[in-house]
Amino acid sequence: MGMFTSLGLRRPAPPRAFAQGRFRLGGVAVVNPMHGRQAGATLAIADGAIAEIANGSSEAIADFAGCFALPGLIDMHVHLPPDNALKLTPGAALSYLAHGVTSVRDAGDLDGTSIDAANGLRNGGIHPVPRLFWCGPFVGAGKASFRNTILLPDASRQAAEAAALKVKSTGATFMKFYEGLTAPMIRALELACAKHGLKIMGHVPAGLTYEAARIAEVQHFFGVPDPHALERNALVNRSCDWHQVGQRRMEEIVEVTLKHGMSNTPTIVRYMRVNTLVPQDGVLPSPAAALPSRPIAVARRPVGAALAVAPESRRA
C-alpha cells in the first residue's frame, strides 16, 4: 500500500453503516414480481425484515424517495475473490449489492480463503456482504484443477463418505462435482450427499455425456455437446462448441432432464461475454476486447447473470 500512498491514492472510507432496529422508508415504489407494484409506499422495517407496507410517507426517512423496492436477486454461480494482498472481497460484495444481488452461491472456493474472507466481513459487521451459500472445496479425481480440491481415490463408499464429511465440515450446503470423476464415483458421491444433507451441483466431467453423468444440477450446459465433437477439451469449448448439437440432441437432453429431475445453471451471459474476446476472421467482435486487462474491474463485476433452468415439477 506504500506505493499507492506515494502516488497520492488513499483507501476509500468505509461505507455508511446500514440502519438497524425499527425505521420507516417513505416514497418508494414497491415491486412484487408477477403481482404488481405500489407507488409512493412506506416500508416499515423491523430488525432487518419488512414488517409492513403502507400508503403514504409521513414520518418516514425520505432518503430513498423515488427508488424501487423489490425482492433481492440471487446469483446462482459466482466465484468470490481469494483473500490476498489485493483485498478484493469488499469491492466484489458492493458490486453485487449495487446491482440488486442480495444472495450469492459460491460455486467453488478456488484456494480455500474466499468464503472465510466474506463471512468474516459479514459476521463481524465490518462490511456489507450478500447472503452467502457455498460449496466449499471442489470434489474431483486425478489431477486437481485448483488447490482447494478433494481428490477421490476410487469409487468406494468410504472415499465418497470421507469427501462428504470434509465438505460438510466447511459449513457448505452444496457439493461441487468437478473434473476427473467417473460415473461410478458420481453415483457414490450422490449417496454420501444424500446421507449428509448436501445438495449437488457440478460440471459434467470431460469425456462424459450429460446423460451418463446425470448430475442433479449441471453447470454451463456441460455434457450437452458430444465430447468427441469438441474442438479441444477446454472449459470454453465445452460450453460453446455446439456446432453439432441439433434438435434431436436437445430433445434427448430434455427427456433425460425430466426423467431424472435434473436442473441447469447455464451461465449464458458469461459465455456471451467470453465470446467477444474470440477473434472472428482475425477481427475482435468487440472493441472493448482490445483494451488492457483490468483485473480489479473484472474481479468486482458479478460473474454473469446465472439463469437457473429447471423442470416445471421442481420450480418453486
Structure description:
- By secondary structure, the chain is α/β, with parallel strands linked by helices.
- The protein has 2 domains: 22-69, no CATH class; 73-314, TIM Barrel, CATH 3.20.20.
- The chain is 28% helix and 21% strand.
- The protein has a 4-stranded mixed sheet, with no helix packed on it. Strands 9-8-10-11 form a 4-stranded parallel sheet. Strands 5-6-7 form a 3-stranded parallel sheet, with helices on one face.
- α3 links the parallel β6 (101-106) and β7.
- α4 packs across α5.
Low-confidence stretches: 292-316
Please tally the β strands and state the result.
13
Taking Cα atoms only, what radius of gyration do you get, to the nearest Å?
A: 22 Å
What's the number of structural domains?
2
Which class do the helix and strand fractions yield? alpha/beta
The run of helices and strands is HEEEEEHEHEEEHEHEHEHHEHH
Please indicate the percent range of residues in DSSP E strands (runs of 2 or more): 15-25%
CATH topology label of the largest domain: TIM Barrel
Distance between the termini: 47 Å
Across the major sheet, the strand order is 3-2-1-4
